[in-house]
Amino acid sequence: MSTEVSKLLALILEPNTTYRDVMRLYYEESSATVDSFSYTFWCRAINRAHTKLYGEKWYDKKSHERAHANHLGAIIKQSTESRNLAARLARPVGLSMALDGDALDLFVALVARDHGSPDDITRATERIDGLRALLSNSPRADTAFAAFIADWRHVAIVELARRGDFSPDPAWIGARLLPSVDPADVETCLERLLHWGLLARADDGRLTPTGATLSTGWDAQLALQHHYAQMGQLAVEAIARATPAEREIQGTTVLLSDDDVRVIAARVRQLVSEVLGRDDVNTGRKDVRVYHLGVSLFPVSGE
Question: Do residues 278 and 293 lie in contact, with contact meaning Cβ atoms separated by under 8 Å?
Fold first, then answer.
């Protein structure tokens, strides 16, 4: 299971949470689910966010990367003020964790409260209280998007709800997902989907997709990385779990020109558009299943 941004959002709303707690949870969850994740990997994501925000890199020499990675680890591991996150780094770090909007502002305020001047601490505390109240009552769409795609079950349940024989019973849903999901976890997913407005519950208890969409915010890179890592793992498992008639998994590595890439990318977009069109055609049918179509085209060598 990939890192759930929703876990960060839940933690950041707790009254006694510090910015170190948020960073620690993010690192632990990411390390447990993404094999290549490390402090160095995280530093590179922070560096990209820093460059995007300020127009300059956090560091520009490879030799400095290890020192920054060690410093990042020290911040997370120590509960004392001997190692602090610089105020200027607060927003890039928050963005690297796929926080956005009010949740990002809240993380920045937590950093300011931790080691600012007395006046800074007072202002930050007031800001934190206000943002927590706002997020608790009305979560932003951009943070909801990151949480939505952080767990493949959210997407699968919304699609499953289009079936004509769909049941809102968590046990029914959990038994039909592949791999199967515990009913308690399904119940949690349903609560989130209802809260985000992606599912609606009728008076008779039926659940139906609303057709609503969520905004990605301006930077959802890490959330998308986790999503694609999840789907890639499901594809690996499908080789053994699904029969050849139920799946089609192809891949090749080939020399391509820039013109080739543009042509192939256009064809991929056309294919995805055509497949999406089947959603409306198949809504309400009982003889349908939820499938994932994943097509990737990316370079594995430099120029």
Answer: no
CB-facing half-sphere around the CA of 136: CA atoms within 13 A: 11
Mean pLDDT of all residues in the chain?
84
* 39 closest CA partner among 29, 27, 49, 47: 27
* Token pair of 135 as six digits: 């997020």
Going by C-alpha positions, the residue among 150, 210, 209, 142 that lies closest to residue 1 is 150
Mark whether 128 and 148 lie in a shared domain. Answer: no
Same domain, 95 and 162: no
Higher pLDDT, 35 or 217: 35
Of 137, 170, 196, the residue that ends a domain is 137
139: left (phi over 0), alpha (psi -120 to 50) or beta: beta
In the chain, the N- to C-terminal Cα span, in Å, equals: 35
**Quick one: 93 and 191 in the same domain?**
no
Please give the residue range of the domain that contains residue 287. 139-303
145 with 131, same domain: the answer is no
Asked whether the beta carbons of 80 and 123 are under 8 A apart, the reply is: no
Torsion sign, CA atoms 170, 197, 108, 221: positive
CA distance 193 to 166: 16
What's the rounded Cα separation, in Å, for the pair 226 and 233? 11
How many Cβ atoms sit within 10 Å of the Cβ of residue 294?
11
pLDDT at 133 over 80: no
Structure tokens at 80: 């004392």
Indicate the SS3 state at residue 206: coil
**For residue range 241-264, what is the model confidence (pLDDT) as tens digits?**
999 999 999 889 989 999 999 999
